[in-house]
Structure formats: structure tokens, C-alpha cells
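Working notes for the structural subgroup meeting. M.R. asked for a predicted model of this chain before we commit to crystallization trials. I am recording the input and output together here so anyone reviewing the notebook later can reproduce the run.

Input as submitted:
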Amino acid sequence: KLKIQFQHKDLQEPIQDLNKMANRMIFALIAGALIIGSSLILNTNIGPKVFGISIIGISGYVFAAVMGIWLLISIIRSGKL
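Returned structure, recorded in C-alpha cell form:
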């Protein structure tokens, strides 16, 4: 038989940093997907339109912009770029 014991010390901060990084990556991927999806919707001219522009496509762009600004603010506030 072989018995191994593992004890970690001071790993809480690196784990929190890794979680923040993963959350930001996922947030950025979702914002990017919104931009691509909105571009496709605008290109196909589907959905209700105002002044010839798809409301769904524009709302996707607006939502992606809000997410991007939110992400940028959180990065600046943390001080880790």
C-alpha cells in the first residue's frame, strides 16, 4: 500500500485569480459571439426593422457593447490588465 497526503498552502489567491480570468474569458467570448450573431442578422435582413436596420441586430450590438464596457471597467478597477 502507498499513502500520499497533500497539503496546499496559500493557493487561495491564485485560484481566485484563475477564476476571475476564466470568467472574463467566457464573458469576452459571449460578447464576441453576440457581435458575430448580430452581424449575421444584419446581413440577412430579418426581423423587424427601423429605418431599414434590423432591431434584433442592433440590439445585439448594443448588448455586446455594454458587456465589453463592463468587462473593460472590471479589468481597469482590478488594476490587472
